[in-house]
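Sample A.
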Amino acid sequence: MSNLGQILLDIQKESDGDLLQETFEVRGKMFVLKLLNDKETNWTFKSIAMNNEVSLALSARLAHLAVGIRSIEGASIEDSFKDKLSALPSDERTKLFANNDNDRSLVIASLFMEFLSNLSPIYIGELYEKWQELSK
């Protein structure tokens, strides 16, 4: 590996430590929440519905949580949704990857966001309040 390659790896390792991750309890369940990196933050902006102020606010919370929640009760979100992703018809999978920068973690976040959108807004609000505590 070139000297620059090693330097870039070192920078990435240092940067990973800046992305705070913490475990929070919400309604008796343990959630691991993590601050977003720039790529994930950009994805949240693309995932926000701009129909009106209410949909803007609600979809912003969902998008942040979809990439910010890493696991629930010890089960990783990625592992929990990989079977659903595999079960999708090939054309749907291809479209999902194309719409999410061909990034598997963002595809999983998209599937998780769909799940989150069916939860109570009160529950989403409680989760989002915990996620916001990370950035304080």
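Sample B, a different protein:
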Amino acid sequence: MRLTINTNTQATDSSIEGLANNTPAGIPDFYYGDKLNMEIRFSDGEGNIADFQGQADNAIIVGIGTINDRNAMTTTGTFNLADGFYQALIDLDTDELKTAIGTQPSINLFLEIQISYADNTTETLCQQEIIMRNQIIK
């Protein structure tokens, strides 16, 4: 899954079509049980890569869960920068997701993307509702 995030807009509407295209983009559905390669590129909203991208000691953090109780049902490990994208594997086969989705065909959750800067400050760059779908094949 490839995402481009506009860092110059509200986190609730920051997924965009591309680096030079600020048209809002929906986030594709996720499937419980998958281990998903996630690639994220950050835009400055003017067609350029965000200033922080590639700077040392910044960390990208991604979580999927519920907002009302601040429950992260899965998070990523370290994102590595390669080919202009931050890349990591996200595990959608967690006990928390299994409990949440149960026998339902799908549930609504939130995807949150944050940056932790070298000076220990953090910023939420994306917080958008997603659909987590159940699967037939285990």
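Observation for Sample B: The chain has a mean pLDDT of 92.
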